[in-house]
Design a protein that fits this description.
It is built from 5 helices and no strands. The chain is mainly α and 185 residues long.
């Protein structure tokens, strides 16, 4: 099988033009006897934009224990400083219920959420590409296994025919030796 059209007809049972993009790609690789697997983590060689890299960094840091620890420490420090100022000076820069702290937390959440969503969208796209690639590799492997089964079946059938022919020859020679006609197999 040297052309993708023949592969499509034989393995997919459809004309090459009616196959989806993944199946056409697999048919080409089977016809050319080339490998399909590749490291998709290397990407296409293009560098993501500064904004995408920044979004990945923010999402990575925002989802870490370091961030949780710093965040909890900052809030605790805020409360302790306000309590200290209240007990020693009788006045704080952000009295309880910490309206200024709530404002800063809201602003942080308002900025951090879309940045994390950008990073998640980028990761989702990477995962989609990886799953499409996995599908193509699995499809090619399945079809190659089918081809191997066909070859093994052909070899087995050929061996049976050869064994039957050998048996016929042995029976013929036995009949010549014994002088009795051989029974047809």
């Amino acid at each position: 099988m040297k052309n993708p059209e023949e592969v499509a007809k034989r393995l997919f049972g459809q004309p090459y033009e009616k196959l989806d993009a993944a199946a056409r790609n697999v048919a080409k690789h089977i016809a050319n006897r080339t490998h399909l697997a590749r490291n998709i983590n290397l990407g296409d060689g293009s560098q993501p934009s500064f904004g995408l890299r920044a979004a990945d960094a923010v999402a990575s840091f925002g989802g870490s224990w370091t961030f949780v620890g710093l965040f909890a420490g900052t809030m605790l420090l805020w409360v302790v400083v306000n309590a200290y100022l209240l007990s020693h000076l009788g006045k704080t820069f952000d009295p309880y219920p910490y309206i200024l702290l709530n404002l800063f937390l809201s602003m942080l959440a308002a900025i951090q959420a879309p940045i994390i969503l950008m990073s998640q969208n980028r990761q989702t796209e990477k995962d989609r590409i990886a799953s499409e690639h996995d599908y193509e590799v699995n499809l090619k492997a399945e079809l190659e296994i089918m081809l191997l089964h066909e070859k093994i079946d052909l070899l087995r059938d050929k061996q049976w025919e050869e064994l039957i022919e050998i048996q016929r020859e042995q029976l013929r020679q036995l009949s010549l030796l014994t002088g009795k006609p051989a029974a047809p197999p």
